[in-house]
Amino acid sequence: MANVLKKEDDDYEDGKLVKSCFREFSSVYDSHVAHSDFLTDPAKANRYGFLFDLKPTDYKAWAKGLSKAGYATDPKYADRLIDIIEKYDLAELDTETYDGGSIVGTKDLKSYRPVRYYNDIKYIIAGKADSPNSLAAQVDLRAKQIVKYNDDIRDEEQLLTPGSRVYLQPKRNQYKGHQKYHTLKADENLVSVSQQYGIKLSALQKRNGLASNETPMANQKILLKGKIKTALKLVDPYAVPVVKKNSDVAVTTSHPANVVKTTKPVTTPVAKPVTTPVASPVLQSKMDTVVITSPKPVELIPAHTVSKGDTLYGIARSYGMSVEELKKMNNLSVDTLSIGQKLVVR
């Protein structure tokens, strides 16, 4: 956690010396993490994004690039930074490698998992085969706390997406950065926005005037701070999803549980009758031949397990159905769902 303070340095406005904003950290490590998070903030990509095209070990290019981007007000910032790196041979640290969960070659930190901050909330990056249960012991939390703090995690055994952000503290009610809103993309939802900016899902819904079962349409501004003045346009939960078709195949969505439906008739070779000699003359009069045919295929009914953040509209859309069809198939009289609930889908 950082303390913010302001002091006069070398920043001027209209020829007058003004106080600049500085951050004070309790450890060097925390300051390094905050510096990295600052430069990788998506909201600052237009300013600092070009730096990440540079070679990571080219400290001179990075120092000059930071100065060019206006990171520091000191015109000699790049030269002074390069002098410090070369004076203390800091470039040698670039020979060590980092695998995302430990610092290779460092005896005391082999099992250390870096803790970072975003929106002043502690988080870690999920690795391969991580789950709330496997992370709990490493971060000194209970698995159910990890589930509670992250709206995209539905249970304690869920395998997490490698590289995803896992919060170790409750998210905040608003975003502390400069960005005021997020434009919702077609492949995003409020849960993903909540995780991206470290804002509680319930607070995000309230701030934007949304009920828990309402879904905003894409290409709208989702407020990260402040309170909405004009109501968002909502997706009609009873609208029938658009189904993409071509001459041969009709695909509903890209949901992994979907089955591709073919419009061409499927022809199955019919088995030829097999004549089997019958030894008994008594039976011969009743059955001359035995015909072997293929059994009818068993039609499986797929099921969807409701997870945190699911809505009737979202589930119906994933399976190419309307909400009305989904409710009818599952004998639902209300629009509310329970986590872990099984729904029959087509």
TrEMBL record:
All residue ranges annotated as the LysM domain in the record: 180-224, 302-345
Gene3D superfamilies: 1.10.530.10, LysM domain
SMART domains the UniProt entry points to: LysM (SM00257)
An annotated Gene Ontology molecular function: amidase activity
InterPro entries linked to this entry: LysM, LysM_dom_sf, MGlyc_endo_b_GlcNAc-like_dom
Keyword terms: Antimicrobial, Bacteriolytic enzyme
Origin superkingdom: Bacteria
A Gene Ontology biological process term: killing of cells of another organism
Keyword Signal: no
Name of protein: Peptidoglycan hydrolase
